[in-house]
Amino acid sequence: MPHNGDTPRPEPTYVSFTGARSADAHLTWGQQEIWALIEKAIPHDDAYTITGSLPVPGDLRLTETQCLEAVSFFLSRHESLRTVFPRSEDGSLRQVVLEEGRLPVQIVHTSLDGVAGQSTALRESFAARPFDYHQELPVRLALVVAQGLVRSVVYAFSHLAVDWYALLYLVDEVERYLRHGEELPPESTLTTPVDLAHWQVSPEGTAKRDRTLRHVESLFGDRAPLALPPAVGGSAAGEHYVQARLRSQAAHEAAGRIARGTGVSTSAVLLGATALLLRDLTGSTHVDLHLTSSQRFDRRSRTMVATLMQESYFSVDVDGADLREASRRSWRSALTAYQNAGCDKAGMDDLLARLAQGSRDPLCMYYCVNDRRTRPESARLGEGDDADWDGLLGKTVLTWPEVTEQEPFYLVVDSDGQHLDLSLTCDVRHFPATTVEHFLRGLERSMVHLAGALA
């Protein structure tokens, strides 16, 4: 029943689009990795649907018509948003760009008090329903309208179409278009996923692929990646994973000060601190991590609305290192990993199977770190500034959210510009919940300790 002034939801409004071309290609390397994760997660592949809602600022008085015209413009502009992924005759997935078509947009009218509730309900509805990847456009949209103006835009994107960086760029582009009427570069100047797929099978793309394979073989040709600690058991049936989240201003400030003092990025500081804790936890001085590489180093791909993320293989020797030295070594190792990232899924799978040397299972990287910050440089204290580290540590908040990734060890780094948000998911058969909490607090303490020493 309607409430808070809500009206029953009508049939969706269909927005037409017409792009510059239709196109057809095999999946890009990034799309191949995402599709493998989606297939593995079915029927819970909704975990790879990117959902959210954007409150419309009060000074931006948007009508339904303006928003629907913007939807048509951006669908026409970005090929990834009008791409479907049917199967070829051999069963493989392809990307097919539609030159024209229609997108259903849900429009909900409510009162001002009902905007937040309607936005939440729409977001949850979008998130709970996996995409029909083979024939559904990879975007869902809803407009929440109150007193004649659009107050919130709710979205869902298939991860096959966009990654986190693409979404941030798209949101910024939409805001510039709506707020300033800014002219945007024509679509023809933008590299597209189809263009990228063709490049990846070119001689230049093949050379990059082969370089990545040689790098991984150089790391693990004579040893296996870092193993998980021995299983401890004791978890309830089906309850094998736990997730903890640490929200810390102290870690944010400390990482910035260490980065300034050592001449590396805050990402390298976090990788160094993680490597030292894993060294102590596993007894191994070689720490191997799966990193997520944005693959946006080329100016042609920097602002591409597409999923470009690729796994990269990071290994660092932290024998005898303190955090200052571990950060420097991690910086060099991360650059090497990013420079040697980019390969088709089948090629990497074949290599990992071969390197397993007769084992039934291919080599596996158990420890993953995903730094999702777009500008991973924390705000830094001024030259002579002192921090009340005890006071900052007292503001740290640890929570235990619902598990979103079933991974043996998965550390995600986010930031709001004032805090570091460190989320760690672990398999409790190898990492008890107490270890998960100690790990996050250990990251924070180790950085605060060194930052204080650098004052």
TrEMBL record:
Residues 26-304 form the Condensation domain. One of its GO terms (molecular function) is catalytic activity. InterPro entries: CAT-like_dom_sf (IPR023213), Condensation_dom (IPR001242). GO terms for cellular component: cytoplasm. SUPFAM superfamilies: CoA-dependent acyltransferases. GO terms for biological process: amino acid activation for nonribosomal peptide biosynthetic process; lipid biosynthetic process; secondary metabolite biosynthetic process. PANTHER family: FATTY ACID SYNTHASE, NONRIBOSOMAL PEPTIDE SYNTHETASE. This is Condensation domain-containing protein. It comes from Streptomyces actinomycinicus. The lineage of its organism: Bacteria, Bacillati, Actinomycetota, Actinomycetes, Kitasatosporales.
